[in-house]
Amino acid sequence: MMSNDAWQNAREMYARDNCAQALGIDIIDMDDGVAVLTMTVTPLMLNGHQTCHGGQLFSLADTAFAYACNSQGLPAVAAGCSIDFFRPALAGDKLTATAHVRHQGRQTGVYDIEIINQQANVVALFRGRAHRLQAR
Amino acid sequence: MMSNDAWQNAREMYARDNCAQALGIDIIDMDDGVAVLTMTVTPLMLNGHQTCHGGQLFSLADTAFAYACNSQGLPAVAAGCSIDFFRPALAGDKLTATAHVRHQGRQTGVYDIEIINQQANVVALFRGRAHRLQAR
Amino acid sequence: MMSNDAWQNAREMYARDNCAQALGIDIIDMDDGVAVLTMTVTPLMLNGHQTCHGGQLFSLADTAFAYACNSQGLPAVAAGCSIDFFRPALAGDKLTATAHVRHQGRQTGVYDIEIINQQANVVALFRGRAHRLQAR
Amino acid sequence: MMSNDAWQNAREMYARDNCAQALGIDIIDMDDGVAVLTMTVTPLMLNGHQTCHGGQLFSLADTAFAYACNSQGLPAVAAGCSIDFFRPALAGDKLTATAHVRHQGRQTGVYDIEIINQQANVVALFRGRAHRLQAR
């Protein structure tokens, strides 16, 4: 189901989201409780092992999380997150982060984000807990 | 106990750590299993709520984690991390991240990182699991 | 796809799993990387708030995790777990825990477990990291 | 600093805590935001590998967490927890769980719990997020 509201919320967030823009993150798909974003790993994102810095992978997942948990139009912020890393990302890799709501209560929600590379191999799994600023 | 080796490992890592340099992160103290880093929140680090992006706070904590878990001179990478956010960080805030080893086995270690602001209020708590590339 | 091996591994584990038996846990479905278990909340499982103790919910999820990550016939143990609680479980509630593999590498795997009650409301979400005792 | 209130709250909780009593958990020390509990591993707590079930270790840590986050006299429940396992516990091992508050806000708190065995080796590290039922 296409969600025009989810897309509209995402466009408004993106317009003022300097970080997402600076990282070259693109929004590919939006729906209620869902966000799909892409980012290409650049040489500036590499650490001393010549693999993408965990902070950059976290930022991609965290951004997908933010767009998904704000997709219903009620402002929400991250209360906490966890991430597990499985496979390094290299310069030139095109990463896709898909965020899905797993549970959304009146005030608290949990969202799962999966980052895969261009070969559909899992790079990282992220779980975020969101807290709505006002309860519905 | 002062650890010259921990400092030397940290200096070598920092020299090739573009991310830490780009974020303006400074190393304040190093010891075996310990790292203390600072970062000042700049306007470019803000999200749409005008507070420091979670990805930037994660990157500061993750960097302190990396320096602490590599302080013994055996290369280690992050296997997974969790972070809890308590208080927003604002533009101009000077943040200090202190990393301490909680457990270091032959191959796996757990490190706790606390981020405080210039008023010593806790901004975030981070826990990282490290995996040594070769077992000792 | 029905997996006879997954069922056979589960039956062998259950025969020597005093805890699962003591909690009244039943195995409902098994497949490669999948396990579905049920448990009914008894008065002995209640804490002072008259709701099911978190440790009992954890044990149910952890058991589903163990059966799923051992379903392929390679012995694996839990390296770490996280659980988020959403809704209390009360005496008489019939809980169902469904475990799915999210990622299984040569040595490390991540499994997601969802506990729902008899009204299909989410009680808790659990994520477990498994470590195989011998790499394949 | 001795805290008579923390002890009194703990005694009242313990009187109606069937689970803690059934596990043979003893309270060794209490203070504001602190709880120290012990438990001896019995044969009934073993899994098929003849090591203490993760659910039992979780229950010990979770109980220490509950006593610490309720020590100030304001009812609080667990919102979520994570646990990392380092070393198996065997039958006869005497485990000590020490819970310390890491952050306590108006409504949300984070507590760290360490489980060690009789040789002072770390068995598991647990981190719990508590949610107060009424904000102060």
Summarize the structure.
4 copies of one chain form a homotetramer. Chain A is an alpha+beta fold and 136 residues long.
Question: What would the keywords be for this entry?
Answer:
homotetramer, Thiol Ester Dehydrase, Chain A, 6 strands, alpha+beta, 3 helices, six-stranded antiparallel β-sheet
Q: Multimeric state of these chains?
A: homotetramer
Assigned CATH superfamily of chain A: Hotdog Thioesterase
Poorly predicted runs of chain A: none
The total of beta strands of chain A comes to 6
Strand numbers in spatial order across the main sheet of chain A: 1-2-4-5-6-3
Which pair of protein chains has the largest interface, and what are the residue counts? A-B, 31 and 30 residues
Number of domains of chain A: 1
Distance between termini of chain A? 23 Å
Given this structure, which CATH class of chain A is correct?
Answer: Alpha Beta
Structure annotation, total helices of chain A: 3
Task: Please outline the major beta sheet of chain A.
Answer: 6 strands, antiparallel
* Rg over CA atoms of chain A: 14 Å
The overall average pLDDT of chain A, rounded, is: 91
Q: Which fold name fills CATH's third level, the topology of chain A?
A: Thiol Ester Dehydrase, Chain A
Residues in helix, % of chain A: 10-25%
- Note the overall shape of chain A: globular
Q: What portion of residues of chain A belong to β-strands? A: 35-45%
Architecture blueprint of SSEs:
The structure is a homotetramer of 136-residue chains.
Chain A (H helix, E strand, L loop, with lengths): L3 H12 L2 H5 L3 E6 L2 E7 L13 H16 L6 E10 L8 E11 L3 E9 L5 E11 L4
Antiparallel strand pairs in A: 1-2, 2-4, 3-6, 4-5, 5-6
